[in-house]
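Message: I would value a second opinion on how I read folds in token form. Give me a protein, with the fold worked out from its sequence. Write it directly below this note and I will take it from there.
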Amino acid sequence: MTDYKTQRLSIARQQRGLSLVELMVAIVVGSLLLLGVMEIFLGSKQTYRTIDNLSRMQENSRFSIDLLSHDIRIGGFAGCAGIASVSPNMIASNPPSGPGLTGGRAVAGYDGTSGAIDIDGDGSTGGANDITVRANTDVLVMSSAGSCSAQLASDMTSRTANISVTAAQDCKWKTNELLMITDCEAMDIFRASDVVSGSPISIVHAISDADSNIVNSDVRLTKAYEKNAVVFSYTDATYFIRDNNGEPTLYQTVNGQTDPLISGVENMQIRYGIDNNGDNSTDIYQTATAIGGPNSNNWASVISVEVNLLLRTMGQQGNTLTSEAQTYQYNGATVTATDNRIRRVVSKIITLRNQTL
């Protein structure tokens, strides 16, 4: 009996538990381990956010450059007609706002603009082609024939006759759409006052449409085009930077229709390659101001475009990626950001292929 009591007392002494010091040490060690786990979690989360934002910015930069490169390369395209030797007869009412392929000009631009711009040159800033831009950003304007075309199905009987095109090449043209017709020797830009479906398709170029809206200033084309002529869609595109829901965004206006393209594009600076001696090689790069403004005849000598884009990470999350403001080089200057976003500069020189033919 005594041995049993002694054994129970011994077990009780062995199960007294931890002392206060031991408990405090355990708490401290556990807290350190928990802090370490939290630090790893927060670090991983910040790394993921940084990589995610950088990936989006890289995708936006690639898309922006690819889109601008494609449209700049085809600038000045007018079918078989060379715009250096053939200038279009513009009879379209509310004519396009760009260089219009006149005088050998495929491109034009505005340098370091701010606020509203009178793109169509009518003395006001409220037209369909007019734009509002982000401060101190450049504007690029391109003119070219579109990608869809249709050959004439028969000779025109007169300068005022309807234009018949083959039904197999239906471009889904609509009333009031800007079109261009050329046979390599002459070129006219007009608006379709009506498009009559059938075989062949008949394109009318009257002064008014069915609703009595004035669509053309004249019903007469340069000539009665023959069957070898081709009708093209006509594209007049303007590219600029403007804020969209708080994000700087690359915009495009095509024939008066404005759409946002790519967010996170904070600035666009453009220089133009000039061929001074006609050897199809760039001799000097100049800004739009140095060329003489958007209406200068010197644009006919532009054979390449240097695009410099500044992109930034987007949204509130994109403003928490750096511990201090980033310093970067852009447009020949060293700039220190006023926020905690990451920025990237993307540049490319694109040749105007139709200006070097």
